[in-house]
Amino acid sequence: MAAGEISTPQDYIGHHLSNLQLDLRTFELVNPHDAPATFWVLNIDSMFFSVVLGLIFLVLFRKVANSATSGVPGKLQAAIEMVVGFVDGNVRDMYHGKSKLIAPLALTIFVWVFLMNFMDLLPIDFLPYIGEHVFGLPALRVVPSADVNVTLSMALGVFILILFYSIKMKGVGGFAKELTLQPFNHPLFIPINLILEGVSLLAKPVSLGLRLFGNMYAGELIFILIAGLLPWWSQWVLSVPWAIFHILIISLQAFIFMVLTIVYLSMASEEH
């Protein structure tokens, strides 16, 4: 659906909630408005912006690390040092084991998720307009964290680390006992314990991914509703206050994702 074909607020909202998709069977771009939903597609706009923002994070932090001085730091170095110190303090407070992975992982999660969330503060039609009129793309969503595939993929990565640290610290037998002998330490309750602990274990990545997705999807939808239902000259009355408030939301969601990751891995690393 091209911008010129958008005639109603419903079309406008649907257009902005559609991902740019690649059909894996034909390796062709799919117009989400014309093609039926299918499993064999990739939301390549979410993947593209996720990778680009990740590269920005790596290049920026590496550049500052290589040019860091021991004297009075510049503004960029000071800002990054504050972020690193903030994350390091949270890791020291919440993770009680010893691991060289947890602090870099927490820093990566916090900054990467924040950058993905920050894309929601760009004008809603800016990048989609460029994508359509310059590159001929039928659709474009620029907030990766508003795509449930991205958030659940990140949560799945955390879940794999939970399993890894649980087995590493407790052993296969200890991890199996944790799943089968808690909370009722009796062989007769093994099936019940397995169900309770299995649900609790699987709920961690699901809640982690869906919490981020739900908040960012709702924030994106509010910006779309403001742009689709109000005249252009009056949109700032609602969009500016919501954008200011949304700065708190995107920061808080990045912080929550980081904190829960640290807490889950700390629980997995406990030997008892």
Describe the structure.
The chain is 67% helix and 3% strand. It contains eight helices and three strands. Strands 2-1-3 form a three-stranded antiparallel β-sheet. Helix 1 (9-16) crosses helix 7 and helix 6 packs parallel to helix 8. The chain is globular, with a radius of gyration of 22 Å. 26% of the residues are buried. It is found in: Cell membrane; Membrane. This is ATP synthase subunit a. It is a multi-pass membrane protein.
- Give the integer mean of the pLDDT values: 90
Q: Sheet bearing the most strands, described?
A: 3 strands, antiparallel
Structure annotation, total helices: 8
SSE order, as H and E?
HEEEHHHHHHH
**Total number of beta strands:** 3
Could you tell me the strand content as a percent range? under 5%
Spatial strand arrangement across the major sheet: 2-1-3
- Uncertain segments are none
Coarse shape = globular
Please identify the structural class as seen in this structure: mainly alpha
